[in-house]
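Re: [help] complex structure
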Amino acid sequence: MTASASPEDWLAALRFDEQGLIPAIAQDARTGTVLMMAWMNAEAVRETVRTGQAVYYSRSRARLWRKGEESGHVQQVHDIRLDCDGDVLLLKITQIGGIACHTGRERCFYRSLDLNGMQPAWAVQDPVLKDPAAIYGHPHPDKR
Amino acid sequence: MTASASPEDWLAALRFDEQGLIPAIAQDARTGTVLMMAWMNAEAVRETVRTGQAVYYSRSRARLWRKGEESGHVQQVHDIRLDCDGDVLLLKITQIGGIACHTGRERCFYRSLDLNGMQPAWAVQDPVLKDPAAIYGHPHPDKR
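Output below.
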């Protein structure tokens, strides 16, 4: 097998950061809503491709994070895109359960900067669809 | 003025990384297309809010990067969202000129992982809309 046909040439195109991580944006394939951004290491990228479900790397837990492993809210991956610099991934997904965020909301980007007051302020825009305690059976740590 | 009314409480909600940066995703406000992801430091976030146009921090040039400063392809910002952990921003924008990527494409995510071959491979999906040399008048460095 020649170097140009190495099975992981596609992975070599990725530029991981000093911690060996790359940001991965998850976008709803049907609506285009940006649901979340998390991080992947090389193993998480491989596992995402192998299984067809999003696998991230949890920085807080320092291990692979198979999205939905506790909540059941897995992400079926339809398309993986890479940016011009090779240092950001974009996933088109179907969010099972309709909840991507550990707060029980559809998406993590539920706060919007309100510029109408004396000072800018973050305003919660999106409803909690399901109590996180009912999703996880216990308080849930940050996804970081 | 009390601490709770500090003019930069909104900025204090952001969790910048060890380099003082936060990822910012730019999404087309009309179509929902994710155009790019770049980085902001606190000054870039302030300038984005102040001017209503996206200002990033260029890691390669180690300075503020007023998107479109060379190309004219500025990004008008309509909405700024913050994620649950406070460590990612999402901007809804109008991309002037219709070109976000320094390669002359609409978006930076122009490569898609093709899983139909013997091995996965990145396939270019999106056309170059304008020759970068015509946009910049010279070869353009990475946006990093």
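Strands of chain A lie at 22-28, 34-40, 55-58, 63-66, 75-82, 89-95, 111-114, 121-124.
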